[in-house]
Design goal:
By secondary structure, the protein is of the alpha+beta class. It is built from 2 helices and 11 strands. The strands form 3 sheets. Strands 1-8-7-6-5 form a 5-stranded antiparallel sheet. The longest helix is centred in the N-terminal third of the chain and has 25 residues. The chain is globular and about 70 Å long.
């Protein structure tokens, strides 16, 4: 009986250590700058326009200039929204979306307290039988997030900057994606 109890405790200890290692390896600490809303990068968002013709650019405000590829023009092709999880008030979801209506990429940022984790997922309307076996072609290698404050409530303004180093696995190319963003917490 003591041997079984020791094995169970050892198993729990191993799982706990693996969980902590996973957290440390994937989740990064958030930087805070309470004056980021006054930065040049945030202020020029109002002067930018949507490149995507699916969005009515007259009524939609530009919330981000996030781009996977360097963009030197005043047009943006990404949308941004921020959602506070109603069940877990410390979990904030930031979503950057860039697509043409048929395919694209979502960059999802999970903020938990003072840490964040980023994933990238591609989507398409072309579905094949074995899509569930295919691994995601994007891997986040490095990530940096700057926010205007640490705690948010529904209706709060959020301002920030994100910088990502993304590896595209089919050809091993590296993209440096970055951009400023602003929105209201939904």
């Amino acid at each position: 009986m003591k041997r079984i109890l020791k094995l169970i405790l050892l198993f729990i200890l191993i799982i706990s250590v693996l969980g902590v290692l996973y957290f440390v390896s994937k989740w990064n600490k958030i930087s805070y700058d309470e004056n980021i809303n006054k930065s040049k990068g945030i202020k020029i968002l109002d002067k930018k326009i949507f490149q995507n013709f699916f969005i009515n650019s007259d009524s939609a405000k530009v919330k981000t200039d996030f781009a996977l590829f360097e963009n030197k023009s005043d047009t943006v092709s990404s949308n941004f929204n921020s959602t506070l999880n109603p069940k877990y008030p410390n979990l904030l979801i930031l979503r950057f979306n860039s697509g043409d209506g048929f395919s694209g990429i979502n960059i999802n940022v999970l903020k938990y307290k003072n840490y964040f984790y980023t994933t990238a997922e591609s989507y398409t309307d072309v579905v094949s039988t074995f899509d569930f076996l295919r691994s995601e072609p994007y891997i986040i290698k490095q990530q940096k997030l700057i926010l205007n404050k640490s705690n948010y409530k529904k209706g709060d303004s959020i301002y920030g900057k994100i910088e990502l180093e993304i590896k595209f696995t089919p050809n091993d190319s590296i993209y440096n994606a970055k951009g400023y963003f602003k929105s209201l917490i939904e």
